[in-house]
Amino acid sequence: MTVRARNSHKEIHLAAHFPGVNSTTVWADPRSRSQIAFSSFEHLARTAERGLFDFFFLAEGLRLREHKGRIHDLDVVGRPESLTLLNALAAVTERIGLAATVNATFNEPYELARRLATLDHLSGGRAAWNVVTSSDAFTGENFRRGGYLDRADRYTRAAEFVAVARELWDSWTPDGLSRPFAHRDQHFDIAGEFTVPRSPQGHPVVIQAGDSGEGREFAARAADVIFTRHGTLEDGRAFYADVKARLAKYGRSADDLKIMPGVTVVLGDTAAEAQERAAEIRRQQVSPQNAILAVEQIWGTDLSSYDPDGPFPDFDPEPDPSLTQGRTRRGDSVATAEKWRALSRQKGLSIRQTVIEASGRQSFIGTPEAVAAELETFVRQDAADGFVLVPHLTPGGLDEFVDRVVPLLQERGAFRTEYRGATLRSHLGLTEPGGKG
Questions:
Q1: How many CB atoms lie within 10 A of CB 331?
Q2: What pLDDT digit, counting tens, does each position of 61-99 carry?
Q3: Could you give the domains of the chain?
Q4: What is the pTM (predicted TM-score) of this model?
């Protein structure tokens, strides 16, 4: 399939990610507020809607992470259940989409399809489901099925799960007729009648987050949006071309799947001021304690006796999966350790300084004008269709972007000046799926 040629008139899509519990959030900032209070979610969602964003996005945490047998400090505030929160937010917002991350491994199609269809009705067609999977037995201990699902099976179950949910949503016709459903396959054997009539946008929007070959293929087959972590122009263009090229085999066009990397933005009145602000944010994100914790996760051993302002261990990692529980592990620990030590030697950096430089999260740093131009370049050059902004502050982390960058994007003709429809599908430029016969 040929990916659409570069287009200077492509409109940028924007979404807001509630920072939640992770190493992006700066807890020590006096402007940081509760991760549980409804007012925090309401503020961020309303700010995103004021900025005409496509959707507001919540992550999911099904178990508190542990490190060395203790609850991970970043998880002590917990994380509320997404769909409950979004139903409440539907009452205090009007147009912005409401996206919940819900695990396809530890839920059942009938129940989840019903909850999502309910949100879609209550919000007037603004619901979205970010499909995630898990092969983590540690998380699975919270559920009856436990860690039964082999890693190789998680995407086959997820694909079947999404297909069943869509069968349920399509069991009601657009004119209000209900028909029995029946699905019998590898993972699900269910039959009956769905209780919720067809929702305002036909199906809630399906989002997928994943970078593996299986994840890309799943997105090409079943998703409307893919949430990625590719932050550079070169990596973004390669990912974009690869995923868009997979769509044709499923009878889909390039416009049927929106690619939206998660990004952070740091603004300043000058480029130098923005860089200094970004550096200070990284110092706050990577405290001395968090620097040692990051290295422990790579080395697989207790390094609490090491000085975060000192050198790295001189021995190679021996990965211990039980040291940190509930955290997704990426890459080869030995290769990462050598990369970090080489960076430390080359630049004369301490453990903490190296972790700050190696795990930097700011994607766009500069004046509002420079950031607006760079965002537009990414979309115009087919490195993304838009962006999911992940602020470092709760709940006011989007205020400056909405006030200073969005108007510039609008002046450039790169972003909407008003919502042109009522549903999330209309915001994203996605067609409504047709009902069955």
A1: 9
A2: 877 777 777 777 666 667 789 999 999 999 999 999 999
A3: 13-269+364-428 (3.20.20.30), 287-358 (no CATH)
A4: 0.91
